[in-house]
Write a structure and sequence with these properties.
This protein is α/β, with parallel strands linked by helices and about 240 residues long. It has a domain of about 170 residues: Rossmann fold (3-Layer(aba) Sandwich), CATH 3.40.50.300. Helices cover about 30% and strands about 25% of the residues. The strands form 2 sheets. The protein has a 6-stranded mixed beta sheet. A 4-stranded antiparallel beta sheet has the order 2-1-4-5, covered by helices on one side. Helix 3 crosses helix 4. The radius of gyration is 18 Å and the shape is globular.
Length: about 240
């Protein structure tokens, strides 16, 4: 499934992935035999109705949940074969995540939030790198502010800076504009794609917004825990025009 546009081959390999959860009414099948590959550098929109399994799939790809069956490989590493310590190290090194609800630490400034992944990795230049990352998303003047002092758009741009700070090869974004108004969401998604392009990061964008999905090269659509569409699309530019191929 590797695209000729991405000669480095697949960064993400998912094979026969299942997720089944227990409930009072019995087992609930969330994901049912999902298989796909994502090439290094690809931009992929994961779409589908509420309850189709999008966020659950993202949690498995991020190593935040374990599958009931099947495998997830990121850069050749089988997430299921890693213990919690090795999995945490892989997440810090390889995977960035942007959530709908920002997930900033309220008692830390924007600068401290962005620096945190590098601090955990023992990087002595964590704060200098965080300051540069905030400047790249237009928030150099807000770095000493706490999340409660930032607007929703500023909080999400801070979260984007934090997600990219360690240079991850894979960026997972789960409805990153879901809590923002249209104009602010547009600025945030432009920021996300600009940072993705600058770092050359592989992007999996979970969205119900068709206009956001069309910013990507490829669309994977889920329904009832299964893939019902996997197609390549000509991405839209931020101004709504199709990019030349």
């Amino acid at each position: 499934m590797t695209s000729s546009l991405h000669p480095d081959g697949p960064l993400v390999v998912v094979e026969d992935l299942h997720l089944t959860l227990s409930s009072a009414a019995g087992p609930v099948n969330i994901l049912r035999g999902i298989s796909f590959e994502i090439a290094a550098g690809e931009t992929v929109a994961l779409t589908g109705p509420s309850g189709s399994g999008k966020s659950s799939l993202m949690m498995l790809l991020g190593g935040l949940e374990r599958p009931s069956a099947g495998t997830v490989r990121i850069g050749g590493d089988d997430l299921g074969a890693l213990d919690e310590d090795r999995l945490a190290r892989l997440r810090r090194r390889e995977i960035g995540i942007v959530f709908q609800s920002f997930h900033l630490i309220p008692t830390m400034t924007a600068l401290e939030n962005v620096a945190l992944p590098l601090e955990l990795a023992g990087d002595r230049n964590a704060f200098a790198s965080a300051a540069a990352a905030l400047a790249m998303v237009g928030l150099d003047h807000r770095r000493d502010h706490y999340p409660a002092q930032l607007s929703g758009g500023e909080q999400q741009r801070t979260a984007i800076a934090r997600a990219f700070i360690a240079g991850p090869r894979l960026l997972l974004a789960d409805e990153p504009t879901g809590n923002l108004d249209g104009a602010t969401g547009g600025l945030v998604i432009d920021c996300l794609f600009a940072e993705r392009a600058r770092h050359g990061t592989t992007l999996l964008l979970i969205t119900h917004d068709q206009s956001l999905a069309e910013r990507c090269e490829r669309r994977i659509r889920l329904a009832d825990g299964s893939i019902v569409e996997d197609s390549r699309i000509t991405p839209l530019r931020h101004d709504g025009q199709r990019r030349a191929q």
